[in-house]
From TrEMBL:
<dbReference type="GO" id="GO:0047307">
    <property type="term" value="F:diaminobutyrate-pyruvate transaminase activity"/>
</dbReference>
<protein>
    <recommendedName>
        <fullName>Diaminobutyrate--2-oxoglutarate transaminase</fullName>
        <ecNumber>2.6.1.76</ecNumber>
    </recommendedName>
</protein>
<keyword id="KW-0032">Aminotransferase</keyword>
<comment type="pathway">
    <text>Amine and polyamine biosynthesis; ectoine biosynthesis; L-ectoine from L-aspartate 4-semialdehyde: step 1/3.</text>
</comment>
<dbReference type="InterPro" id="IPR049704">
    <property type="entry name" value="Aminotrans_3_PPA_site"/>
</dbReference>
<dbReference type="InterPro" id="IPR015422">
    <property type="entry name" value="PyrdxlP-dep_Trfase_small"/>
</dbReference>
<dbReference type="InterPro" id="IPR012773">
    <property type="entry name" value="Ectoine_EctB"/>
</dbReference>
<dbReference type="InterPro" id="IPR015421">
    <property type="entry name" value="PyrdxlP-dep_Trfase_major"/>
</dbReference>
<dbReference type="InterPro" id="IPR015424">
    <property type="entry name" value="PyrdxlP-dep_Trfase"/>
</dbReference>
<dbReference type="InterPro" id="IPR004637">
    <property type="entry name" value="Dat"/>
</dbReference>
<keyword id="KW-0663">Pyridoxal phosphate</keyword>
<dbReference type="Pfam" id="PF00202">
    <property type="entry name" value="Aminotran_3"/>
</dbReference>
<keyword id="KW-0808">Transferase</keyword>
<dbReference type="GO" id="GO:0030170">
    <property type="term" value="F:pyridoxal phosphate binding"/>
</dbReference>
<feature type="region of interest" description="Disordered">
    <location>
        <begin position="417"/>
        <end position="449"/>
    </location>
</feature>
<comment type="similarity">
    <text>Belongs to the class-III pyridoxal-phosphate-dependent aminotransferase family.</text>
</comment>
<dbReference type="InterPro" id="IPR005814">
    <property type="entry name" value="Aminotrans_3"/>
</dbReference>
Length: 449
């Protein structure tokens, strides 16, 4: 095999056609450390993808790795379903002390299964059980997971179509639009809830992302979230905040909703809660909502103890003193300024730069442009993905632990990719696609829940 080439035969002949990221990044990766992955030929790639938000603390974080290796070397329990273990006790005590109590959050903690969609399914199921009602309100451009209940409250048409059956008991509403100067973002929903002839059955809950990741890095205003929380209170609906991708410090604070000052009834966490990319998910809820019967919602892998170990280490290392939050917010301001420059100076004049903390998106008027930029970035050694309903947003999602030099390097590579994918009037679309990557997907990924 020639130097620089990859043996991809087994992936293309044996693995399902459903694979996605491997098409976007045609390399075979071998090892990873910090903010970089290396392919099997040794070429490094700067990671502005971070496992779709599962690697907030980087690849093979040394503090977390040491805790994990120590636990495995002493034959610590790996699999225990929901049995009581030392690792689980230590995590729960640490989570309460470092996360819940300082924020005066009264939540009970549920381990619903290994993935984000498990946490969402549990949240929806619990809300319906508590309220005795079926409908749930969700928002346009939302993404909550790939299982059927989660898909029913997801906005992406491509993902919804994959269900193969009608997705029912869910009602979409417009997500916050900062360009909309209406005095209330919920006039229409309020009218439906109050109108005797509206045809809307009173929902059990509303589910929302404070920042929509797969939907295009759409940031809800703090006032809009407060208004939503108040509407839920007045209308006897539970408020569920899906913090699976934006939680664990991605937007600065540990929870993405903290800036608004609200206290959701139910919160879902996954992705970076384990800290190491290990499968783990939490559904948090007010104590009075804990109406589960023992075993009423269970799962074989809801107690993955190695994830408890790395989660505890991450909380101890990064969340005791608040330093990571301050650093993330400061770097977020730096990346915002840099991206504004890219958008203003770039030939295409990208129309939208938005985000918070270290979750940023640059929207392009030409919906194919983001895919071209991400493909060129890969050629330059930078991993980016697209998001948005039509894949129109280039999404920048570096690890929270990235160095200042690496952050500057990544933004520079992104700026170069934007400049070098400026369509030439003489180059037809087919030629541009061939040059910059026909392997790019035509829709954004699902974030793998």
């Amino acid at each position: 095999m020639p130097v620089g080439s990859f043996d991809r035969n087994v992936f293309e002949t044996l693995e399902s056609e459903v694979r996605s990221y491997s098409r976007s990044w045609p390399a075979v990766f071998d090892r990873a450390n910090g903010s970089r992955l290396h392919d099997e030929n040794g070429r490094p790639y700067l990671d502005f993808f971070a496992g779709a938000g599962a690697l907030n603390y980087g690849h093979n974080n040394p503090v977390l790795k040491r805790a994990l290796l120590d636990y495995l070397e002493k034959d610590g329990v790996a699999h225990a379903l929901d049995m009581s273990t030392v690792a689980k006790r230590t995590f729960l005590e640490t989570f309460r002390e470092i996360v819940l109590e300082p924020r005066e959050l009264p939540y009970k903690v549920m381990f619903p299964g290994p993935a984000g969609t498990n946490a969402v399914e549990a949240a929806l199921k619990l809300a319906r059980k508590v309220k005795g009602r079926e409908p749930v309100v969700f928002f346009t451009n939302s993404f909550h997971g790939m299982s059927l209940g989660s898909l029913a409250v997801t906005g992406n048409a491509f993902k919804r179509a994959g269900a193969g059956i009608p997705l029912v008991h869910a009602t979409p509403m417009p997500f916050d639009d900062p360009l909309d100067d209406r005095t209330s973002g919920f006039l229409w929903l309020e009218r439906l809830l109050e109108g005797r002839g509206s045809g809307l059955d009173t929902p059990a809950a509303v589910i929302v992302e404070a920042v929509q990741g797969e939907g295009g890095i759409n940031v809800a205003r703090a006032g809009w979230l407060r208004e939503l929380a108040e509407l839920c209170r007045r209308s006897d609906m539970l408020l569920i905040v899906d913090d699976i991708q934006m939680g664990c410090g991605r937007t600065g604070a540990f929870f993405s909703f903290e800036e608004s000052g609200i206290t959701p009834d139910i919160v879902t966490l996954s992705k970076s809660i384990s800290g190491y990319g290990l499968p783990m998910a939490l559904t948090l809820f007010r104590p009075e909502l804990d109406v589960w019967e023992p075993g009423e919602h269970n799962g074989t892998f809801r107690g993955f103890n190695p994830a408890f170990v790395t989660a505890t280490a991450a909380l101890e290392e990064y969340w005791r003193d608040g330093g990571l939050e301050k650093q993330t917010l400061a770097r977020g301001e730096e990346i915002r300024q840099a991206l504004d420059t890219v958008a203003d100076d770039g030939p295409a004049h990208a129309p939208g730069v938005r985000g918070r903390g270290l979750a940023w998106g640059v929207e392009f008027a030409d919906t194919s442009r983001a895919s071209l930029v991400c493909a060129r970035a890969f050629e330059l050694g930078l991993l980016l993905e697209t998001s948005g309903a039509d894949g129109e947003v280039a999404k920048l999602f570096p690890p929270l632990t990235i160095s200042d030099e690496e952050l500057e390097e990544g933004v520079a590579l992104f700026a170069r990719a934007v400049q070098e994918t400026e369509p030439s009037p003489r180059a037809p679309a087919a030629e541009r696609a061939q040059r910059y990557g026909p392997h790019r997907r035509s829709v954004p990924p699902a974030g793998e829940r």
